[in-house]
Amino acid sequence: EAKSSAVASSQILHSDGGEMEPETMETKSLTDFFSKMHMGSVMNRQ
Amino acid sequence: MDEKGSMLSVQGEDQSCHIRYRMEASCLELALEGERLCKVGDYRAGVSFFEAAIQVGTEDLQVLSAIYSQLGNAYFHLHDYGKALEFHHHDLTLTRTVGDLMGEAKASGNLGNTLKVLGRFDEAVICCQRHLDISRDIGDKVGQARALYNFGNVYHAKGKSICWSGAEPGDFPEEVMTALRQAAEYYEANLAIVMELGDRAAQGRTYGNLGNTHYLLGNFRSAVSSHEQRLLIAKEFGDRSAERRAYCNLGNAYIFLEEFEVASEHYKRTLQLARQLKDRAVEAQACYSLGNTYTLLQDYERAIDYHLKHLIIAQDLNDRIGEGRACWSLGNAHTALGNHDQAMHFAEKHLEISKETGDRSGELTARM
């Protein structure tokens, strides 16, 4: 009989239940923050 | 105070203002450089600049919050989750103290993700809930969607952490299935929002994880449907890593649907992409999956071909466990073809590696 029956389906796969998508981390950008501040001060001057 | 004393006092104030200004400027310059380095993926160097910025100090609490947050994220990417936890916690305390709701929501989200990786699921759930509640209160749809995605990830990880060994997808204890069903519900709720927002990138991520959740729940047709959506979006963005993940996950689902030819086609695309991306570990994994799929198809010559490819890469990468698996599979395939000498050779190699790696079940299988 074929040896394939000895290969349990759980042994087929390396990955533990599928490869996950990356986490989404929240960002607090300093560059954006200062761009907004700069725009604000320019608008105030006008 | 006489005129002279008053002059001195003004001079002193000017000097103090000047020092404070220099300090703020210096802290900001260091932090901006840290941000730039993290953006290009040099998290180690980024951390040094952020730490230096903290040493200099700032009185601007929004700047300090951003530094804490980015330091936490940098440590997260460096897999130093203890440090990530520390800085996201500092950020949470700071944003709560100053009443910055949007900042608190973001800090809660990051803290939740970190706690999830550390396996502290109950605390992670509290953080996700806070992230979701604030986002709803302030009408931040993007924040709500992200909180729901994080919630899904926490329940998915919780389900997998409870019981993994030995059991097959769809055949886990009820506690695991409950956690996985919750994960699916959160992913579905996330999808409703990101579709409304037209955020295709977010849809792609959610479809990928929803597919993996359906797979573990044993809903293999639904898993295929989600992973096909993920694949479509990955192609839209030209994201070859995501495309490769989708093909691999599709291959896994088709194995359980017993559509082995279809599975092999997906694993072949995985292999092609792994080679294009020059990811040797993933290339090895694809070869292993292909070898096993051809074993299921009883095409032992092809199975041997792929298992040998897997063996060579495992040896190159010094992956003894992978090498052991390859030898075990090669032994089986040669036995099926009646090549007893070759089968014995690989069985002995498998036994030797199992002893070395302390793999008791592998050792017992080899002895059989």
Short description:
Chain A has 46 residues and is mostly helical.
Rg of chain A, rounded, reads 27 Å
Counted by DSSP, the helix tally of chain A is 2
Taken from the alpha-carbon principal axes, the silhouette of chain B is: elongated
Counting DSSP E segments of at least 2 residues, the number of strands of chain B comes to: 0
Q: What's the rounded overall pLDDT mean of chain A?
A: 66
Description:
Chain A has helices at 9-12, 30-45. The model of chain A is unreliable at 1-14 (pLDDT under 50). Chain A is 43% helix and 0% strand. Chain A is mostly helical and 46 residues long. Chain B has 368 residues and is an all-alpha fold. Helices cover 85% and strands 0% of the residues of chain B. Chain B has helices at residues 3-39, 43-56, 61-77, 81-98, 101-117, 121-137, 141-162, 174-197, 200-217, 220-237, 240-256, 260-276, 280-296, 300-316, 320-336, 340-357, 360-367. In chain B, helix 13 runs antiparallel to helix 14 and helix 14 (300-316) runs antiparallel to helix 15 (320-336). The radius of gyration of chain B is 27 Å and the shape is elongated. Chains A and B meet through helix 1 and helix 2 of A and helix 1, helix 3, helix 5, helix 7 and helix 9 of B.
Topology:
The complex is a heterodimer of chains A (46) and B (368).
Chain A: H1 9-12, H2 30-45
Chain B: H1 3-39, H2 43-56, H3 61-77, H4 81-98, H5 101-117, H6 121-137, H7 141-162, H8 174-197, H9 200-217, H10 220-237, H11 240-256, H12 260-276, H13 280-296, H14 300-316, H15 320-336, H16 340-357, H17 360-367
What are the main properties of this structure?
heterodimer; A: 46 residues; mainly alpha; 2 helices; 43% helix; 0% strand; rod-shaped; disordered N terminus; B: 368 residues; elongated
